[in-house]
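Sequence only, no structure available. Ideas?
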Amino acid sequence: MRSRTDVRWGAPEAGWEVEPNDWPAASTPLAVPGRVRGYLGRADDQDWFALTVSEAGTLTGRVAAPAGVDLVLLRDPQSKRPIDQGGPGQSEEFSLAAKPGTAVLIGIARKLPPGADGKVEPLQGLDDPYELKVDLAP
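Reply:
I predicted one. Tokens follow.
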């Protein structure tokens, strides 16, 4: 079986994740309110975002998953407290306190079905982006 990889070199495209952003220290910055899209290009891919606010409040966010893809949201670099309320193709939402000068880190990852091996089995949604929308309530 042959696989194909397309690579485009150039300036980052507005409204899209900036690779590499697979770990918290390489997070794609995102000002709130804001919106960004990205791809989970492999089974163990994680996309991290550093959300910044201009005033204190409650940071709310929603990630729309591609059809058939089960997402989890990671709230801390050690990924010990995932947000996993929806199933495949469903959105995940979060609400967290935020203050200026302190970035809130959010990771997006694929959740594989129990017993699945994403390195062997074909994955759904590799060519379909997710969308993260964030806002701030006082």
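The mean pLDDT is 90.
Hope that gets you unstuck.
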